[in-house]
């Protein structure tokens, strides 16, 4: 394998992995936002006057109860383990105390067996007491001290055991109250259905998306659909043997589709009613057709160039500057052109319109725009007010007078001066 082929193979492998990741993310976003939006529309169309916010508050209450029940169960399990340990300690302390008492009884038996001594012999201060008895008495005193300590420890453990048991009873009582409240919420038929649907969406991580505001959900749906449309175009190019694009094209094209889809959505939505299933509602998000919205977004990402051209045309139409002045009708235009020995074919490169439209202008069948009036006047080196009129239909005697020779109808001196003064400025408009 040559280095060039190896580089191309690695590059295509990286692009393939990139496309797979984008498909996974975009499909997750598309499915999540689309299903969430449909669920919100279902809630808004409910006859029980249930709103999305009320359902979300209900679900939050249920979630809080579930969290509290989990905490109580966890605390109960911890206290139960502690109670078991305390119970074991109580048993050990009681057994230890019993063994000390048996040891004490054994020492008394040993003392009695040594001699006929009363139980007060260990408290006697007489010096004639046997050494063995003295040693047994010391063991007895030590055992009695141990018994006292064991009783104290047993009392402490029993007290701790009792407090743990009381805490367990309190938590169990509180837990039963929470479970009853949770059961009451679950028995709500209307909310229970929505809670089941949200629970199903929670398995895929869509529950947080479903709780987003509807306006934000629409934008996310539009952006994700635009990305998916771009991915379709990217996949077609990637699988084609004829087209080859750099990695930057594959990396940036999905974002172009995303932005283009949002722009087309804004452009389409500005028409109001085009993507709405019910335009009579005052809420701009209610009744929005998600299928047509998704279609517009996905083709905007798939055909980003055409979408850009649509946005460009809409922008030009919106910011189009209207020509100053008013449209006027040709008065002596045809006669002046004949006098100057000029024809419509020579005028076409300057006005840049269809020949049929120019012919209608010359014959007075259609009005001439103000900017074209200036160009024609400059082309004929004649003031525009002598070529055009505000009246579309002129009397016949006016046309007859226009055909009279210059000797019969002398041109007024003022008109000659105006024509001479305007000729220089009008020459600037005659660049093809």
Defining key terms:
432 residues; mainly alpha; Helix Hairpins; 434 Repressor (Amino-terminal Domain); 3 domains; two-stranded antiparallel ribbon; 15 helices; disordered C terminus
> How many domains, as an integer?
3
Measured between the Cα atoms of the first and last residue, the distance is 60 Å
**Helical run tally:** 15
- What pattern of helices and strands is seen along the backbone? HHHHHHHHHEHHHHEHH
Low-confidence spans? 395-432
Radius of gyration: 50 Å
- State the helicity in percent bands: over 70%
Across the major sheet, the strand order is: 1-2
- The secondary-structure class comes to mainly alpha
Number of strands: 2
Largest β sheet strand count, sense and barrel closure = 2 strands, antiparallel
Shape: rod-shaped
Mean pLDDT: 77
What is the beta-strand fraction?
under 5%
């Amino acid at each position: 394998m040559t280095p060039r082929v190896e580089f191309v193979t690695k590059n295509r492998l990286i692009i393939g992995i990139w496309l797979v990741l984008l498909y996974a993310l975009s499909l997750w976003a598309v499915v999540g936002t689309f299903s969430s939006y449909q669920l919100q529309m279902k809630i808004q169309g409910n006859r029980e006057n249930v709103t999305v916010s009320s359902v979300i508050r209900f679900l939050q209450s249920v979630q809080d109860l579930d969290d509290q029940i989990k905490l109580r169960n966890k605390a109960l399990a911890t206290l139960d383990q502690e109670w078991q340990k305390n119970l074991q300690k109580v048993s050990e302390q009681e057994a230890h105390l019993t063994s000390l008492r048996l040891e004490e009884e054994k020492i008394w038996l040993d003392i009695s067996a040594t001699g006929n001594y009363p139980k007060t012999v260990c408290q006697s201060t007489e010096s004639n007491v046997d050494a063995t008895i003295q040693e047994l008495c010391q063991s007895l005193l030590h055992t009695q001290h141990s018994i006292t300590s064991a009783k104290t420890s047993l009392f402490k453990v029993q007290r701790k055991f009792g407090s743990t048991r009381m805490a367990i009873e309190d938590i169990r009582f509180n837990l039963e109250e929470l479970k009853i409240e949770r059961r009451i919420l679950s028995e709500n038929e209307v909310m229970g259905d929505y809670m089941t649907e949200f629970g199903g969406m929670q398995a895929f991580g869509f529950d947080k998306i479903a709780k987003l505001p509807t306006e934000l959900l629409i934008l996310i749906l539009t952006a994700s659909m635009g990305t998916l449309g771009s991915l379709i175009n990217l996949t077609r190019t990637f699988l084609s043997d004829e087209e080859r694009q750099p990695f930057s094209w594959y990396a940036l094209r999905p974002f172009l589709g995303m932005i283009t889809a949002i722009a087309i959505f804004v452009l389409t939505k500005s028409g109001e009613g085009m993507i709405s299933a019910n335009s009579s509602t005052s809420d701009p998000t209610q009744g929005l057709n998600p299928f047509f919205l998704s279609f517009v977004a996905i083709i905007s990402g798939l055909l980003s160039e055409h979408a850009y051209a649509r946005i460009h045309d809409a922008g030009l139409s919106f910011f189009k500057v209207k020509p100053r002045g008013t449209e006027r009708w040709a008065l002596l235009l045809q006669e002046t052109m004949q006098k100057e020995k000029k024809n419509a074919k020579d005028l076409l490169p300057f006005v840049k319109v269809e020949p049929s439209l120019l012919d209608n202008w010359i014959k007075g069948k259609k009005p001439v725009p103000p900017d074209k009036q200036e160009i024609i006047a400059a082309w004929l080196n004649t003031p525009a007010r002598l070529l055009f009129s505000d009246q579309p239909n002129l009397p016949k005697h006016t046309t007859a007078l226009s055909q009279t020779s210059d000797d019969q109808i002398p041109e007024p001196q003022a008109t000659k001066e105006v024509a001479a003064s305007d000729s220089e400025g009008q020459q600037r408009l005659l660049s093809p």
